[in-house]
Amino acid sequence: MLIKQAEFVMSNTDYRKCPKPDKPEYAFIGRSNVGKSSLINKLTGRNSLAKVSSNPGKTQLINHFIINDSWYLVDLPGYGYAKTSKNNRHKWEAFVRSYLLNRENLYCVFVLIDSRHEPQHIDLDFIRFLGTNGIPMAFVFTKTDKLSKGKLIQNIDFYKAELLKEWEELPQIFLTSAVKGDGMEDVLNYINAINNSD
Ligand code: GDP
Hints:
Blueprint: E1 6-12, E2 25-30, H1 36-44, H2 51-54, E3 62-67, E4 71-75, H3 86-102, E5 106-114, H4 121-132, E6 137-142, H5 149-164, E7 173-175, H6 184-196
Parallel strand pairs: 2-4, 2-5, 5-6, 6-7
Antiparallel strand pairs: 1-3, 3-4
């Protein structure tokens, strides 16, 4: 899919105030520092699109971008901020949960996972939350350029094996590098295929 247009629409904390749900929507989420902004910028070919969300006042918001006038890309707050107070974290969880559970045009949540690390509880908990609530998801392993091919395959196999202890089948998996551009076309083609399947 060619990205001809990618524009910031709005930020907020209430799914009811998000843009009218009349277009397919795809959300990106993961631990802070997983490479979410880099991935969004690389996917859209806009070097600073996700800067809107890395602006300090806006990091904890649901950020909508319109792509090719036909679908929404949503940058969700990263989870696992070490410095976030317990109180704040609960608020975060409440509005993100509410968005994920209620947004009717949400076609897929891309869960970003750092390919260098072993499965982390915080990611597995989040995946469990999506799975038990029937929210469609796909996994995007990030920063694959930081590993040798052998180590990458080993890590992904390990991750899959961990998940298969709990789940009968696995969602779509993408291996990406925002530095090298690997996997970007695959993610976009996946979105395109879903958009065209309606
Ligand atoms: P975010 O907090 O999830 O939005 O993460 P960022 O996109 O800001 O990335 C966090 C750090 O990881 C930055 O230093 C990026 O340059 C680096 N990074 C992100 N993606 C990649 C990647 O694909 N390869 C490499 N080598 N570094 C990456």
